[in-house]
Amino acid sequence: MAGGEQRAPGGPERVALKKEIGLVSACAIIIGNIIGSGIFISPKGVLEHAGSVGLALIVWLLGGGVAALGSLCYAELGVTIPRSGGDYSYVTEIFGGLAGFLLLWSAVLIMYPTSLAVIALTFSNYVLQPVFPNCIPPYNASRILSMVCLLLLTWVNSSSVRWATRIQDIFTAGKLLALTLIIIVGFMQIFKGNYKELAPSNAFRFWMTPSVGHLALAFLQGSFAFSGWNFLNYVTEELVDPRRNLPRAIFISIPLVTFVYTFTNIAYFTAMSPQELLSSNAVAVTFGEKLLGYFSWVMPVSVALSTFGGINGYLFTSSRLCYSGAREGHLPSLLAMIHVKNCTPIPALLICCLATLIIMLVGDTYTLINYVSFINYLCYGVTIMGLIVLRWKKPKIFRPIKVNLLIPITYLAFWAFLLVFSLYSEPVVCGVGLIIILTGVPVFFLGVYWRNKPKCVNRLIESMTCWGQKLCFVVYPQCGSAEEEASSAHSWQLGSETALRK
Predict the structure, then answer these.
(1) What radius of gyration do the chain's Cα atoms show?
(2) Quick count: other Cβ atoms within 10 Å of Cβ 173?
(3) What is the reported pTM?
């Protein structure tokens, strides 16, 4: 698998996506995408709504529990419908083309570009911090460095799947080491007797009485901190033995992240009072300044490394979403092609990079991220609802993993509670998010549903596709081996023909 192309036994070389993601890299994708800059910078969202240290820690544990419920449902969907594309592929197969396209539209248009832009800007701000120690880094300098980082990682992902997964492995290990350092220092503080804020009498001393609304907001903040647990499902077809490694990676990663999040927050409270934590703009940096002394520089570097790995993970997975959408005929067919030597989806990577650059240049990224959070959360619930619908529509389909129905029902009950509260408390944000999704309806009917387009339009599309193929040196992937195809057919039969097969 070291080369760019795969060679079938006794046959010619074929161009196809490579199965190079093993169990370690699979865990790195999940952990690396969940653990971003938030746990280092500002985990105060949960605390300010919970009203006490003890309740905040309980919310972090419950947030991990809810993510675990959701990931169990995605594990069943991932091995039942073993196709890359994650939520999009499942929603398309279960609810039809329009529902899948709306999810794809919102993800490609705003969800992933905005998330990538915010992570890239956070990276540049922390890299530039030593250069501008007494002020906020200049706007243009931050934007330029963000773009350079994005372009570099787009090149890496275009050149080799193995390079991209190695970067993810290394930087995920780096951020886990940084968090492990925080946890170890926290335990040292506890052994020294510095655990005043964690004593039960203080931990559950409320400085405000949290209402149902406050608790909902605290849970919402905790749930968003775990977003990214479904990203491995976007690259199912590149997993080595996905029926074993997909659920294994999920079962390893979610408990590990929950443990790390909870104990990192415990460590913070050994050095800071709740008031100090709430007033800090970069909690890990404040923690380092108070306890690490000369080595306090480790924390800003850790944030930069964490966000660099996050950019790589988002690029890797979001490009596979574009690739899957094009393969189903919902995006231009050029995006379903891969490089003839490197076997990487270069057109899809370039589109993800371009969309992010546009958001950086013309969009108010920190306002857009509010809409992204709502759309992302909505997609989770619709996808898990699809698991129950699939059980009803195709009860006899082969399911290597079959979770108890109480798991998706419990998740959906929690999801519905938070969704209803979000609609009540933030009607404008939720309304704009729904409008963004619905703008995809006319695009779907014009671009996908309308088959008999004028010949001039078809010729233009064909010429642009041909030009893109020559520029990027890409072709359609060739079919897998007979064994792989038989395995895929055994687990899932597609409900509709894709445009690429017509």
Answers:
(1) 23
(2) 16
(3) 0.83
